[in-house]
Amino acid sequence: MSDSREHPYIPRLKQQLADGRIDRREFLRSATLLGLSAGAAYAFAGKVDGIASPAMAAQAAAMPRGGTLRISMRVQEVTDPHTFSWIEPSNIARQVVEFLAVTGHDNITRPWLAERWEASEDLKTWTFHLRRDVTWRNGRRFTADDVVWNLKRVLDPETKSSMLGLMMGYLMDDAGKALWDANAIEKVDDFTVRLNCKVPQLAVPEHLFHYPMFILDPEEGGRFGPAPARSSSRRSPSAAKRSSRRGRMVIGPEDLS
Question: Are residues 138 and 174 in the same domain?
Answer without folding.
Answer: yes
